[in-house]
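Project standup — Tuesday

K.O.: blocked on the structure for the chain from last sprint. Re-posting the sequence here as requested.
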Amino acid sequence: MFLAEATTIDSGATAWMLTSTALVLLMVPGLAMFYGGLVRTKNVLGTMMHSFAAMAVIGVLWTVCGYAMSFGPNALGGWIGWRGDLLLLRGIDESVMDNGGIRIPEYVFAMFQGKFAIITPALIAGAFAERVRFRGYLAFIALWSLAVYNPLCHWVWAPDGFLMNLGAAGAIDFAGGTVVHISAGVSGLIAALYLGARRGYPKTAMQPNNLVMTLMGIGLLWVGWFGFNAGSAISSGLKTAQALTATQVAAASGALTWLLIEMVHHGKSTSLGIASGILAGLVVITPAAGVVQPGGAIVLGAVASLGCYGAILLKNRLGYDDSLDAFGVHGVAGMIGAIGLTFFLRSRWLAEAGEKVAGWGVLSQLGVQAAGVGVTVAYGAVVTIVLLVLVNKTVGLRLAKPDEMAGMDHSLHGEHAYGLLNLN
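H.V.: unblocked you, prediction finished:
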């Protein structure tokens, strides 16, 4: 997959991958705005800081050892990858990546993948928004990146990862349904349950402070997602166009379905609803973008909105406080996409799989997909609870009551988002 010396570089593919890398990075401030608009006024900056801090912490860790752990050859029985010269990216200074004859500088691939590593722990923060210490959060995402994200990334995307080679054709995860969304959603749910609800929840109304900012955030996420999914083709050609189209169609389908659900259920459609539907559609198509046609993307987007809407209703009934529905959207839609894509595999993919799937069947691929989801859920849940206990017992994770009541902006950062005295 990787060449040891520089060869002719595909300038078109390199240009697109540079653009995709920037688009995925754009998703981080987009996520900050999306989450920031959903919390109360007193927690806007603290919530947005969770996304920006991930850019700092994971940005350094990925360079130091994350890339080596994720894309180095198997080590420790295949739990992680490892190659010593990948530390600090020393071994790729003149390396060129060869992806089926399409050659780009390995630095570009490393930085593209690094943006996935940044946004994934930032997604988790939505589950425990408004109630964690900043230093505890920093410690948690650093450890989570090393112990959860990097191993999952290696299993799913490294050439010798065991999920990449599971069954006849491997577990399909085009751009991060398991690695990013299911892992973040499940870990977020575990964190929300471990930390407990925000003080006053659910009796006290906790309304979003700025839905205008939330809509701007989801708009940036939608734009950035084209880099997220289409960039994962690691090329600039037919597969790129297919992934981009599926992304657009699924997001639109998810948005439309959510609007219709609200119209039937409540008699009116909301701005938060359309934002949630867009996100559900984007998440569900992430693992499937390279293997399904537009018709399949429409169905997956619609099913994701139905599933996520139901998950949020169930959350409200059960009473647990997944503050911004990290599990309800990312976890649920990620699972729907990872498993549901099996029923919409394009015939060309099956043809290219050829002898690998001959006599093996789509149903067996369904089993592989389910196994990939199961491994991700189980591993992410177990390691996350261990890390939560460790961080909470050492540097501390749950905010003290006076600090939580005052709000993260004032108690943790000494600032106010809008320069106002109203902390509600």
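K.O.: great, moving the ticket to review. The radius of gyration is 21 Å. The first helix runs from residue 11 to 38.
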